User: Fold Cytochrome c oxidase subunit I from Sulfoacidibacillus thermotolerans.
Amino acid sequence: MHGARSEHARVKRMLPPVVRGLLWALIGFLVMNTLVSEVFDRMPYHPFITRASVTLGWVAAVGGWILGVGAWEGAVKPYLGYPEEWVVPQDWRKYFMYSTDHKVIGLQYIFSSLGGFLIAGFAAMLMRLELMKGQMWIFNNPGAYLSTVGVHGTVMMFSVGTVALVGGFGNYFIPLMIGANSTSFPRMSGVSQWLVPAGIATVVISPVLGQWTTGWRGYEPLAGQDPAGILFYYLGVFALTTSSLLVAINLTATILFKRAPGLTWNRIPMYAWGILAVSLLNLIWLPEIQMTFVMALLNAVIPLPYFAQIGSPLTYMEMFWLFGHPEVYIIVVPAFALWQEILPVMGQKSLFARQWGIIGLVFVMILSGLVWAHHMFTNMRNSQMLPFSFFTEMISIPTGFAYLVSLGTMWRANLKLNTPTLYTLMSMFNFLIGGVTGVLLADPVVNLQVHDSFFVVAHFHYTVIGAMVFSWFAAFFYWFPKLSGRMYNEFWGKVGAIWVFIAFNMTFGQFFFLGLHGMNRWVPVYPSYLEPMNFEVSLFAFLLGLGFVFNFLHIAWMWNKGPVAKDNPWQAKTLEWQTASPPGEQNFDPIPKVISGFYDYRDQRLPIRNSPQKEPTS
Ligand code: HEM
Ligand SMILES: [Cu+2]
Assistant:
């Protein structure tokens, strides 16, 4: 008892963990930066901050941050054999400190990616504001515009696209869906979460060190000529990808080894299949891009002109897109899985051709590694184009399976047209446009015409926003009752969905035509005949931004004020719905035994039996 009280006192005496994390980060940076710039880099009149000192200073700062928010007591000291002394208060403060509870970590990830979305979305609004006129008028030089494009793309890809549905909803729901009380590596998971805010902050402040002009792809040899801001691009992306890599390790192990008894391979829920598939993609490709960035970073710090001299300048491009194309599927595979998760529930109808859904996910995953050079048609001989064009078009077949399964499930179903369903259908519609224009772009004849134009920008936003962000919202509303214990407002939910759907299609649908009329990417200055259209497109973009904010306000409001939700308001069969809303600290007590699959709605019985001793009654 005495021990517990003194621990409690200890926690009270401590600074709030986030504040302590910032303090330790600052100390770490100052100490390391000073050491490196004074001791190892000593020259007369040498600046206090150098490329080497800022890079190593950053490493120390991130270390200080992670330890300071609680990994010191929560992960390091227990590892060294000290007793666990990290006490997490059971109120809102638990979200602002190191935690090992997958539900807290999941919400922290959701919150972090939401922050990234709002920051990068604000950058997009600035870009669209600039593009309302053909001459520069918001930014005062092209480098400032390009840095904003880079921050927007980087933060969106690595803290939203890669994270929101995996680190966020994955961490929260995978253990619940497979009948487990925790993930496999909870301490590591606690650490990985805190890399996300660190990574976002690093990328966002990067232009302070100097404008970088490469966009989210960091192309060499251009990057090598950029000022020091590019360092924070590499480092920020390194933090974000490390986080996703740790999530992939943790969730793969969790799905493989922590399933409830009876949850056999052919009963694994579709969302868990989706998370397993993207985790494998992450495990294969994130280390590849990380090593590429480490080489580019060494080039910027030492210098070690690997890409300019030892390899060819195209080497970087190849290495980037080797990862870059699978990255697209890292973003949309969870979206496909969500369609297949939500539609049977909302139609109360059995999932159609489940095996084909899984085969589709797996083949998309495999083929995504064979198509990278379709981003480089302008850099190759005609004879080299065929295989990349061919494999790219082949991806539409397993992708088609995701549609087949979803449409087959909806066929003659009495589909409840509520907010999650609406978002799911919208995601399917948008991805159809993203996919069809992708097939067009895979054709070199078209590609060479529209390369680096807004046609391409339209195409990939149809996949990243149209498919992924829309299904992210589907997930938010579908699981809202479970996350918050409350119900959202169906009317305002639908208003929000229709709002962003119209604004999105009016904005990005017109990007295609802008591109076909000759609007280039990466330019703040363009010919005046494009001005009226750009002006009007920007208005729709602002409407879209407002629509997103409206949806988040609705979610935040109903989180506190919505009517109390039932445990299983959709009458779903998967296990997360068989817990309380929101689930207690212990998800399942006892761990349930699974006796049938989750997607057979002809059978009225629940797929679980709670006391493992008894035999089924029929
Ligand atoms: C809020 C709505 C959004 C708007 C209005 C928007 C607008 C834009 C525009 C105008 C560009 C092209 C800039 C240029 O080349 O001159 C761009 C680039 C980009 N956007 Fe978005 N975007 C939005 C959301 C997103 C989301 C959700 C993602 C990913 C999850 C994303 C990922 C990217 C990427 C990767 C680039 C390429 C950056 C580069 O060229 O390096 N965007 N966006
Ligand atoms: Cu690609």
Summary: Residues 99-378+392-569 form a domain with the Cytochrome C Oxidase; Chain A fold (CATH 1.20.210.10). Residues 121, 124, 127-128, 149-150, 152-153, 156-157, 160-161, 215-217, 457, 461, 464-465, 469, 521-522, 541, 544-545 surround protoporphyrin IX containing FE (ligand 1) (CB under 6 Å). The longest helix spans residues 313-347. Residues 1-5, 612-618 have pLDDT under 50 and may be disordered.
